[in-house]
Amino acid sequence: MARLSRAEFVTDLARRQLAVERASDIAIGVAADQVDYVLAQGLSPCDALRQAGQLAPSDIGRGQAIERLARYWLALVRGWPELLESYPDELAAADAEGDLHVR
């Protein structure tokens, strides 16, 4: 299977797994970029997630979706098993459906 680019991956996850059709691609991309930035500063995964959550717009539902997106993205792309444990059933279902191609 072809490996998805980071942009394709975060957009696909947001739409398919998190059901946030109204969240804009820009907001999703900004959240992922913020996680990258925090990690580059040498902070922990938890700090990166906290920073991504602070990016949430005033719409609480969208903010939660962005935070969850950051968790999925970090767990799958960076390979942190402690984050994968947060959503084992959802990740297993997505993987079984062939939605997740980032390894």
Short characterization:
By secondary structure, this protein is an all-alpha fold. The chain has helices at residues 6-16, 25-40, 45-54, 60-78, 81-84, 88-96.
Give a structural overview.
With 103 residues, this protein is mainly α. The chain has one domain (6-96). 67% of the residues lie in helices and 0% in strands. The protein is built from six helices and no strands. The protein has helices at 6-16, 25-40, 45-54, 60-78, 81-84, 88-96. The longest helix is centred in the C-terminal third of the chain and has 19 residues, at 60-78. It is globular. The model is unreliable at 17-22, 55-59 and 98-103 (pLDDT under 50).
What is the topological layout?
Blueprint: H1 6-16, H2 25-40, H3 45-54, H4 60-78, H5 81-84, H6 88-96
Helix pairs in contact: 1-2, 1-4, 2-3, 2-4, 3-4
**Residue-averaged pLDDT, rounded?**
56
Q: Which class of secondary structure composition applies to the elements?
A: mainly alpha
Strand/helix succession = HHHHHH
- What does the main sheet amount to? none
Query: For the CA atoms, what is the radius of gyration?
Result: 13 Å
Put simply, the count of helices is: 6
Number of strands: 0
- State the separation between the terminal residues, measured CA to CA: 11 Å
Helical fraction: 55-70%
Please supply descriptive tags for the structure shown above:
103 residues
